[in-house]
Amino acid sequence: MSCGYRFTTYERIEFMPIMVIKRDGSRESFNRNKILQGVMRACQKTPVTVRQMEELVNEIEEKLQLEDAQEVTSLRIGEMVLERLQHLSEVAYVRFASVYRQFQGIKDFVNELEQLEPPLRRDLERLLRDSSASDSESSGSPDLVGEYS
Length: 149
Fold this sequence. Notes:
By secondary structure, this protein is mostly helical. The protein has one domain (19-128). Helices cover 56% and strands 6% of the residues. It is built from 6 helices and 3 strands. Strands 2-1-3 form a 3-stranded mixed sheet. β1 (19-21) and β2 form a beta hairpin. α1 crosses α4. It starts with 18 loop residues before the first strand and ends in a 12-residue tail after the last helix.
């Protein structure tokens, strides 16, 4: 019997399920889309492409799978995101860090800047000075880290 239709199948490596241990101690299944959503929010209005964001999330997921980790903390995932964002966009890095590390004020931003490499720190200090007026006009802070906090 021939139906006359063409079907395509896609092969994908089946990953072992990973459980994420959240800050409050609860556990949930790893969801790459939550990470991607947080990264996309952090990268808004930056030159980072969607493809670069997806590659960042792919790298994190692949690293966790290669480590054969069955459980990972949301803190570790956040640090992995920050490590990669630092090389993609200074603005996205600071945005993500401010929510992920729960900045309470300008001192937290200054402390974060002091931890960065000198050239990156200078660029961020300049960006913060230049954008301080526009940042003070926005109300509330976006949820950059999604549900993994």
